[in-house]
Every structure is written in C-alpha cells, then in structure tokens.
Amino acid sequence: MSPVTIPEVEHAYPGSTGCPGCGANLVMRYLLKGLGERTILTIPACCWAVMPGYWPSHCLKVPMVYCAFEATGASLSGMRAALDMKGVEDVTVVGFAGDGGTVDIGLQALSGAAERETDALYVMYDNEAYMNTGIQRSGATPWGAWTATTPVGPSRDYKREPKKDIMSIMEAHGIPYAATVSVAHPEDFVKKAKKAKDVRGFKFIHALSPCPPGWKMNPMKTVEVARLAVDTNVFPLYEIENGRVRITKKGKGLPIKDYLSIQRRFGHLTEEEVKRMQESVDSSFKALEQREAREG
C-alpha cells in the first residue's frame, strides 16, 4: 500500500455551522491542506458565507473576505491586484463559491477574471442547487432531480434541463489549468490543489459537494455518495492542463442506479428515465476517454 500523502496540518478548525455530513466542509478542508496557510479566500453568498460561524467565532485559519453574490471573480481580481501592488507574491488568492454563484449568478465576473488571466484560483463547490436559500434548482442541477423549484408531483415537473458543463466553459477561456476533484479521493484532491497553486494564471477547480438535505440522503453517506459519483462515471476525475486532458482516477464503471438509489431526490424516476441517464453518462465518459487517447 502506498503511503498517505495528505498533509497532517489543518487550516480549518472544527465546529463550523454546516449541516451534518456537509460535503462543502470537506472541500474546504482538503483545499486548504493543498494550498497551505499563505492563502486568502473571497466568498460570496452561499453556504460557506455562514458556515464559518458568528463573530467572534471563526472556523478557518486563513483570512477571508465576503463579496456580493455575483462578484467573486471581480473580488479575487481586485485582491490579486492589491497584493501585487504591495509586492506580495507568495499568497494564493482563492475565489470559493457554490454552483449557483458560479454557473449562474457569478458567471460574468468569473468569465472576466479568466479573460484577464488573473493569477488566482477559483473553486466551485458543487452541491447542485441553491442549498443555502431552500434547495432551489441551479444551472448545475442535474437532469431529473427534485428541488424546491422543480417539484415532483402529479405534473412530474422535475429538472428537465441538463447540467451546465462548467469545465468546458472554463476551458473555452483558454486557462492553463482546470480540474475536477472529489471529497472521496482526498489524495487526488490535494495533489490537484498543490498543482493549481504552482501554475501561473487563472485556474479552476470543480469540486463535487454532496448535500444531505438537498440530495435527500443519509448524512453518514456523504463520502460513499461522492465515491459512487466517480465509480459510476457521473463525475469523472480529470484535469485539463494547457489544453490536454488526463483522467486522474478511473471509476469502476458501476451502473448509475447505484448512485441514484441513495438519493431520494431521484426516487421518482422510472426505469426508462434511469436508462436515459445511463446512456448520457456513458456517452460523455466515452468522449472523455477518446479525447484523452487522442491527446495522450
């Protein structure tokens, strides 16, 4: 067995106000293990805007600046510019936002920061809905999911649109590094965080963040669900470095129903609808493998 490569030092205190089993807690913990203490965060309206606690409580050992919901990209650009003016080069500036504040409300500021080639890292913790305000659907909510605004009832009016492909959107900006990470694979996560830290320019990390209340799942199943997302190829782990794709952790190719069955937000789907989701996942992952083979 290979030695564990996760740093022992912690940059997050216990005792956040996150829900039991919150995947976003683990995202922050592993991110900071990879980046280290010379990090500054800017966080918009999201779960993590309240999770650090009430003043004077604070669960992070690094400085943090709150910004408007739509302004994470602009905020991190301003912070980077201010540090550069002071000659501070050894601090990693991080925008840390949820999926709603990234693929929807904050997309314009994110795009601007990427276009300007701001030397910073943007991390999207993806719990696939606006969880902090009542589980409303976001552009990152997957097809077929229940949310408070895509209810399941006689009308079967659940999410009918596909999940936005934020990795492709960011790659289209020509950034030097983008990666997907999972809290079920912390060594892969920390390794990518360290790599992103050392790359000059704008970097993007997409972290799947299971949400027990929003996904209607047992809080004790967070890591299991995250692992199944990888093993069913729903959320493959890969990186795009200077335009080249590399799959960093192969899933087991398990059927998607193993992943869906643990989450009651998908409990209304028929066998035919699950089959449709399986075909979509298979097609997307095959395309990813083929691209890796071409560019390898």
Structure description:
The chain has 296 residues and is of the alpha/beta class. It has one domain: Rossmann fold. Helices cover 35% and strands 16% of the residues. It has helices spanning 23-35, 72-85, 100-104, 107-115, 166-171, 186-198, 212-215, 222-231, 256-260, 271-295, and strands spanning 39-43, 64-66, 92-98, 120-126, 177-182, 202-208, 237-241, 244-249. It has an 8-stranded mixed beta sheet with strand order 2-1-3-4-6-5-7-8, sandwiched between helices. 46% of the residues are buried. The mean pLDDT is 95.
In short:
The protein has 296 residues and is α/β, with parallel strands linked by helices. Helices cover 35% and strands 16% of the residues. The longest helix has 25 residues, at 271-295.
Helices and strands, with pairings:
Layout: H1 23-35, E1 39-43, E2 64-66, H2 72-85, E3 92-98, H3 100-104, H4 107-115, E4 120-126, H5 166-171, E5 177-182, H6 186-198, E6 202-208, H7 212-215, H8 222-231, E7 237-241, E8 244-249, H9 256-260, H10 271-295
Parallel strand pairs: 1-2, 1-3, 3-4, 4-6, 5-6
Antiparallel strand pairs: 5-7, 7-8
Helix pairs in contact: 1-6, 2-4
CATH class: Alpha Beta
The total count of helices amounts to 10
Termini Cα gap: 27 Å
Query: For this structure, what is the CATH homologous superfamily?
Result: Thiamin diphosphate (ThDP)-binding fold, Pyr/PP domains
Shape-level CATH architecture: 3-Layer(aba) Sandwich
